[in-house]
Amino acid sequence: MRLNLRLLCFLYLPLVFSLNALETPEHMTFSYINHPIIVAQILPLIEQTYKSLGIETEFIVQPSSRGLRNVSKGLMDGEAIYGEILVGGYNNLLLIPPSLGKWTYVLLCALQVPCNSHVIENEDVTIVLTDSSRVGLQDHYQQQQKSHLYIINRIDLIHTLIRENRFSYGLYIMNDEQLAERQPNDIKYVRLFSTETYHIIHKKHAYLAPAVSAALKAALNNSPVIGTQTLH
Question: What is the DSSP string of 138-179?
């Protein structure tokens, strides 16, 4: 009987190993928004994280919250980085620790207009922002938000629209290192609220979460400080 059990185990082990091998994908696709910090620092960080696990990565830029919706539908494997405040309504997304840092929503202002948080309460003001930023703004301010919101799909265009005086106000996101820099001469901004950010994967990859988390932590420890790109 003992010999038969050993033989059974011997025959079963290759099956176990083959199933484990099938569980680890060779390639994963992630969406991201076109922000200078994400492009210059977050994408290489995520690429290195998965490379250490033997997984090739592909990154596809997506407008505003479309990427997160595509991840939720299972059309993509995850999002490179997203604010914690924005994923509460999705039950099939996993936030992978550690945090990728605190990002702050800022109100960008043209030089000739007042620049303070009370602008949010002004019904005569129009603020240009992405749909994702709208969710964060309305979640944080709730009944206080009375300004008109003009939605666009690309966050990277917002500061240009303010500098060219096509809009007087816009909502943008910056990390701690950007906030520590001297404010640019051709635009003003005021801090509104902050959120922690995380790498996100679809729950169908939940079995990968511990390994990705450990690899991400190692990649962070071996990387330069995230966030040295200026607002441009």
Answer: HHHHGGG--SEEEEES-GGGHHHHHHTTS-SEEEEEEEHHHH
Rounded Cα distance between 61 and 79, Å, is: 10
Q: Is residue 70 within 8 Å of 62, Cβ to Cβ? A: yes
Chain segment 170-196, per-residue pLDDT in tens: 999 999 888 888 777 889 999 999 999
Contact criterion met (CB below 8 Å) for 131 and 33:
no
Residues recorded for the chain: 232
d(CA 35, CA 164): 19
Query: Identity (one letter) of the amino acid at 149?
Result: L
Distances (CA, A) of 220 to 39, 48, 227: 16, 10, 12
3-state secondary structure of 126: strand
| pTM, 2 dp | 0.84
